[in-house]
Amino acid sequence: TIFHTREAEAMLKYLLLAAAAGVAAFSSAPKLWEEGIPNENPHERKFITVDPDGSMCVDPYLVPRGAVPPFDEIPPTGINGSRYYTCTADPPPANIAYYEAGDPTSTTKIIFTHGSPSRAHIWRYFTKDICHLGHCIMADNVGFGDSDKPPVRYGVIDMCQYFTAYVDAVAPNAEKIIFVAHDWGAMMTFDYAAKHKDKVIALTMFEGFAVGWPEVPNSIDGQYYSLVAGAEGERLVIEENFWLNLIQLGSNRPLPQELLDIYYAPWQTEDSRWPIRQFHLDIPIGTHPAHSYNWMESNFAALRHSLELQILVFQKVDENTPLTFPPDSVHAARFKSAFSKLDYVVLGAGNHFSQEDYPTLLAQTMAKHIEKFA
């Protein structure tokens, strides 16, 4: 319980710093990043149209945007006790933007996934160390980057529906699929892997949301909910666009403006920011929302004895470092006790968006795991 509470409080502190528009002060910071990281993406952007199967959506409980009930009025369990909705009953087709590298004829597909509020651009520097091992594909999640923003709910199940359709579309003849995941990308890859054990042979991830924090006290749960899901949270995300501060706050190095502009580009209007808010309403802090927590726990249980998993863990630079998966976290403890086929690697001092600080270190460490299965 102490671990749960400390991690939840750290997340709250992280979000509150961003809400105050505070970005890290770098003038006296040590050089905790690699030099010469390029801003540009060397790969050609492509698009593919995907049509998700709505059958994954069960018992939808739909509430219009902005109609989130107060936290203390939410029943603790049950699908109709969910905070807002479970999914969109009939998700429409969408164009997904993606990049690829390596041999497109390879039947080994290495698929990179990102979280929020980032995009596939965050993996631009990884291909040189990994993509000789197979065909690499990295996409902007639906609602993110240059991908379409269809009128869906952008909860856990929605994102999984589109991700499943995308993987099936870009890797129809794959004999082996290896995932590289970060943040919410871990949740989507776990869902696909649990349903396609015959194809998914390995996964490497860091700072991933793949399980909930079931023992977080209601006081912390309520604070997080109020900040993100309540009326003030909606204002901060939609009107103030505060979530984008997390990109800089989650990096050790001061990101140049031209790079920040690439990350900020998809979120120029208030309406474009709904995917960020809606997606983050599904983070299972405590056991709320129930459908999200149960969905993720089910996938976690299904993979614990079958998936070849590599987890890369960074240590905190200091107490203000917004890591969700440090070595002493309950996430780390749960994975180490649950997965029998686990390569657990503790790296140096890092941050949540360490792709922007240590791309070579991360890519080469991941490649050592991937080459065992490619």
TrEMBL record:
Question: In this protein, which residues make up the domain named AB hydrolase-1?
Answer: 110-357
Organism superkingdom:
Eukaryota
Would the keyword Signal turn up in this protein's UniProt record? yes
Indicate yes or no for the key word Signal: yes
- Please give the Gene3D superfamilies that the UniProt record associates with this protein: alpha/beta hydrolase
The record ties this protein, via Pfam families, to: Abhydrolase_1 (PF00561)
Q: Which UniProt keywords apply?
A: Signal
User: According to the UniProt entry, where is the signal peptide?
Assistant: 1-25
Entries under InterPro entries matching the protein: AB_hydrolase_1, AB_hydrolase_fold, AB_hydrolase_sf
State a GO cellular component annotated for this protein. Answer: membrane
- PANTHER family per the record? CIS-3-ALKYL-4-ALKYLOXETAN-2-ONE DECARBOXYLASE (PTHR43798:SF24), MONOACYLGLYCEROL LIPASE (PTHR43798)
- Tell me the protein's name: AB hydrolase-1 domain-containing protein
